[in-house]
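Letters spell out the chain; backbone shape is given numerically. Take this protein:
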Amino acid sequence: MTTASARKAPARGQASERPGRGALVKRRFSTYALLSAGLVLVVLPFVWTLLTSFKPETEIRRDPPEFLPTQWTLGNYGELLEKMNITQVFFNSAVVALATVAGNLLFCSMVGYAFAKMAFRGKNVLFALVLTQMALPAIVVMIPQFVLIAKLGLVNTFLGIILPGLVTPLGIFLMRQFIADIPDELIHAARVDGAKEFRIFFRIVMPLCRPALATLGLITFLGSWNNFLWPAVVAQSEDKYTLPVALAIFNGYQGTQYGLLIAGAVVVVLPVLVLFVFLQRFFTQGIASTGLK
């Protein structure tokens, strides 16, 4: 009896140490409450910006401000379309962003494939140099880039705006990490069957990299779409301005008109939000599969 009771005692002790249902519910409620508070802090500025874009200028400048518009209006968007060539600058931003995304998807994937699956002398040294590039601020390389663009005669051209962003160190790192997880047996089998490297890359590797490609495309589009400094340096005429540059120059000409600026900010942010909604699933998979945990 004593031995049996002694054997059962640890089991009772272990059962008593387990948290009860009430404790689990409280812990889950605390977690959800904390995440909800963080979500509100992140989303609230976007909601405030969107609602403010539908307010007249007098209501925007009211002190204290009100969260919801008392007088809804589309006047800010109408004035933005009237005073600024929004169609042209929107087209310019789309051309620059889409070309930059296409270049990164192609070239970063090629370089990442070479680093992940091909053997050549100095590979580790070159990859270390790529990682070093990620630590350099963009302003450090801007002057040499502008000198090179000027020597090539590409100032005030779309190609001059696009060219420095066609390949990025972050894109190379992202694709290399993802492609490294692809089984080597697939590539070896294709080589045994006589497939060349380009065919292996486009027919086997690229279809398997859809999550990483979606992640890289979204990150590249976001950076190019919101980029201000480089397009402001290279673009020197109104027909080459992108949205951030045009809004900044428009603000300088017209004075501080918060309604127009906020409406312009909504126009800039909206395409990125739409793209993220459609690519959210691939974006999450790409981040989880490339070692960025």
About this structure: The radius of gyration is 27 Å. The longest helix spans residues 21-52. The mean pLDDT is 82. Residues 26 and 32 are 10 Å apart (CA to CA).
